[in-house]
Amino acid sequence: MALSYLRSSSSSSANLKLLSSAVSIRRPISTDTTPITVETSVPFTAHQCEAPSRSVETSSSELLNFFRNMALMRRMEIAADSLYKAKLIRGFCHLYDGQEAVASGMEAAITKKDCIITAYRDHCIFMGRGGTLLEVFAELMGRRAGCSKGKGGSMHCYKKDSNFYGGHGIVGAQVPLGCGLAFAQKYSKDETVTFALYGDGAANQGQLFEALNISALWDLPAILVCENNHYGMGTAEWRASKSPAYYKRGDYAPGLKVDGMDVLAVKQACKFAKEHALKNGPIILEMDTYRYHGHSMSDPGSTYRTRDEISGVRQERDPIERVRKLILSHDLATEKELKDIEKEMRKEVDDAIAQAKESPMPEPSELFTNVYAKGLGVESFGADRKEVRATLP
Amino acid sequence: MAAIFQGVGAAATLSSSPSNSFDSNNSFLSPPRSFSVGKGASFSVIRSGGILNLNSKGRRAQQLISNAVATKADSAAVSSSSKPGHELLLFEALQEGLEEEMDRDLRVCVMGEDVGHYGGSYKVTKGLAKKFGDLRVLDTPIAENSFTGMGIGAAMTGLRPVVEGMNMGFLLLAFNQISNNCGMLHYTSGGQFTIPIVIRGPGGVGRQLGAEHSQRLESYFQSIPGIQMVACSTPYNAKGLMKAAIRSENPVILFEHVLLYNLKERIPDEDYICNLEEAEMVRPGEHVTILTYSRMRYHVMQAAKTLVNKGYDPEVIDIRSLKPFDLYTIGNSVKKTHRVLIVEECMRTGGIGASLTAAITENFNDYLDAPIMCLSSQDVPTPYAGTLEEVTVVQPAQIVTAVEQLCR
Fold it and tell me: What's the confidence (pLDDT) of residue B237?
């Protein structure tokens, strides 16, 4: 049988064919979509609504996709770490490793017509929305092939055609934008929803509550997702928030607390939230997750938490390990196959980095493009419009 | 500047009628009327256009209702008086422009405090909620930061929201959204998103509204890259600029003035827009170029009457486009007259006048016969007391003195 998802050379798949026929193990193939039911790690905690069930329907192809996507995200972030240390990436670089389950699970529950907007930890969500590795690495290195032509940087990845609205540097400012997206969806009667992601640090921003109030009043299909990784840069959540139950903060808006390291729980919660928001207006999801790296590359991440804590989470709650165990226990693939996938992801990342390194820096004239929309015919050079100088009579 | 100030110190003692009409609609709907102030003062105060008649020579008070329209009749080109049109007040012109654009394009919607059921605190959105419904004319709670952000988010998807700040000063709460998201998203996304939003509202020094309600935000916003700023001053250009701003793909901030809403003018019936980046030639002349915008245009025109009587021929240009400046029109004027006076309502420090002075000096230094003079408001919070408030803004007598000094 062909393990068609493996893009590796034909010789290895031939070997596998040989191996499987020799050992004659029967197991579901990876493109199988027969439903498998899995229980989430912990039940959901609900506020002002009925929690969805703990049993999640998935399939072997979906699980293998999760594994593949999350392994790619993990590889990408670790490669970004090395690139930053090699000074190819400058400025701020906020890495998402540890939180991959949120990005992957969310994508599995929605379509590309639904909008996602997030803060600055956006590389993996951009990938989940269909971005390519080349676009990410080139943007991180400030090259022309980047998703924002090198002019945005790590915190400004956008993908308009798959409704990914970025990529924002100011903490909390993306939530009103997200509610505006939801307003536009309601205005155009799209039957789609917006996921506005923010962190436990941003959860204390006033504009969040303002936007939630307006969304609830106008019945907007906005889903506010708090990616609670328990640290707002260097401040632990118990020092920053009087009430760390972020899913309850919506008060009149219902909320759900989800284990953000369990990709199936995330998928179930997002599916539930989408149905809820389309009928009843805004809902808050709190994803209990964790980041292995510090807040950004300039933060070692160990001054405000112990290494034991980090390795403890990595051992017990790592999202990729959980999916690996699921796959192995359900006999969907062998250990070697999973390792091969990881190797393949590593190679993809390395190839993309090499390609991105070859992409040139933006032209100097790019400094002045896209300040104003092209329709004006203006490429602004500042308040005094120097180009007019020559044409004065 | 100090010399001019002291010169008119004596003349500037006026008492104006208190009209704190922030919540009473009636005063803004009543037709403009003039009345003389008692105590043997020789000056009349007109409430409608905020026009002061400081008659330095004679002691007679003048009837000045017609001046709001007469100013238009004085000007040469950009007049609409050739075709019979219809007469209306400035806030009605804004409303007409907004309504026509909402009819024309379904994506245009209005967000702001009390714009819907209440009809707008300055009646600019009156009747729109009934006509277009609650989803297109949206009453927001008092949350400028978030509803401006929501307008920008909606604009990212292609909607064309018109966000109203009940008073421009309140938009300071939304500065982050306007600066970082509105202005910069087109750039940081590499051109993927355009933000066709219009942010508008009344600003400027009113009638004893107090310091916090007399802000001139054009000076704060002028450095934000990626936005355009325009200031309207007559019903004709108010309607034209509103329509052009809505149709523009760029974020536009439209500055209105609290005291200009009751100006009456005859405007054309047909569809027209005003160029967002063009300045308006109010009165062509030969001796000096006076650059101004918004309410100060009327002070300048008042001063122009006196100047003409004294034998000067000022060229008055309403710059209208505050970002970017229309250096083409301005440059042509400077080449002709070689003298520039800027009259603005911004504060002295870091105002529009400061930037304009720098821009003109940089580009047209060779054509100047004298240093550029800039008359601005004092660098103080606007006081409540009427007499003090009069002195914080530029008065026509100061303009006359400045021109006399410039043309010496």
Answer: 94
Q: Is B344 a catalytic residue?
A: no
Letter string b/e over residues A285-322, b meaning 16 or more CB atoms within 10 A of that residue's CB: bbbbbbbbbbbbbeeebeeebeeeebeebeeebbbbeb
Q: What is the pTM of this model?
A: 0.80
Tell me: domain A35-362, CATH 3.40.50.970, correct? yes
Instruction: Note which residues in 280-319 of chain B have CB less than 8 A from chain A.
Output: none
pLDDT at A32: 75
Residues of chain A within CATH 3.40.50.970 domain(s) are: 35-362
ipTM, 2 decimals?
Answer: 0.81
Going by C-alpha positions, the residue among B283, B295, B301, B285 that lies closest to residue B339 is B285
Radius of gyration of chain A measured on its C-alpha atoms: 22
- The half-sphere exposure of B212 on its side-chain side, counting CA atoms within 13 A, is 6
For residue B146, the domain's CATH number is 3.40.50.970
CA Rg value for chain B = 20
The C-alpha atoms of residue B176 and residue B157 are separated, in whole angstroms, by 20
Residues in A closer than 8 angstroms to B145, CB to CB, are: 176, 206-207, 210
Report whether pLDDT(A12) > 70. Answer: no
Q: Which residues of B touch A167 (CB under 8 A)?
A: 188-189
CA distance between the termini of chain A: 79
Cβ atoms of residues B315 and B290 within 8 Å: yes
Q: C-alpha distances in angstroms, B37 versus A138, B17, B18, B33, B367?
A: 70, 8, 12, 13, 45
Write out pLDDT tens, residues A153-211. 999 999 999 999 989 999 999 999 999 999 999 999 989 999 999 999 999 999 999 99
In the residue annotation, B96 being an active-site residue is answered as: no
- Which range marks the domain in which residue B98 is found? 85-268
Assigned token pair, A171: 């903490």
Whether the bond into A167 is cis, omega within 30 of 0: yes
Phi and psi angles of residue B287, each rounded to the nearest 5 degrees, phi first: -90, -40
In terms of domains, do B225 and B252 share one?
yes
**Chain A residues lying within 8 Å of B248, measured CB to CB:** 373, 375-376
* Structure confidence at residue A72 as a pLDDT band (50, 70, 90): very high
Euclidean distance between CA atoms A172 and A54, whole angstroms: 31
For chain B, what is the domain count?
Answer: 2
Q: One of B101, B144, B256, B389 is an active-site residue; which one? A: B144
Q: What is the mean pLDDT of residues A214-225?
A: 96
Whether chain A has a CB inside 8 Å of the CB on B378: the answer is no
Are A322 and A290 spatial neighbours (Cβ–Cβ below 8 Å)? no
Single-letter code of the amino acid located at A17? K
- Mutation target for B interface from A177, A194, A219: give the one with most B CBs within 10 A: A177
Among A38, A32, A50, A36, smallest CA distance to A265 is for: A38
Both B262 and B199 in one domain: the answer is yes
Instruction: Tell me what pLDDT residue A274 has.
Output: 96
Phi, then psi, of A326 in degrees rounded to 5: -60, -45
pLDDT tens per residue across span A265-298: 999 999 999 999 999 999 999 999 999 999 999 8
Higher pLDDT, A30 or B8: A30
Residues B142 and B233 reside in one and the same domain: yes
CA angle at residue B227 from B225 to B230, to 5 degrees? 130
Contact (Cβ atoms closer than 8 angstroms) between residue A172 and residue A205: yes
Residue B376 DSSP SS3: strand
- Categorize the per-residue pLDDT at B147 as very low, low, confident or very high, splitting at 50, 70 and 90: very high
Three-class secondary structure of residue B399 per DSSP: helix
Q: How would DSSP label each residue in B191-221? A: TS-----EEEEEES--SS--GGGS--THHHH
Looking at residue A370, its pLDDT comes to 85
Query: What is the crossing angle of helices A263-280 and A100-109, to 10°?
Result: 50
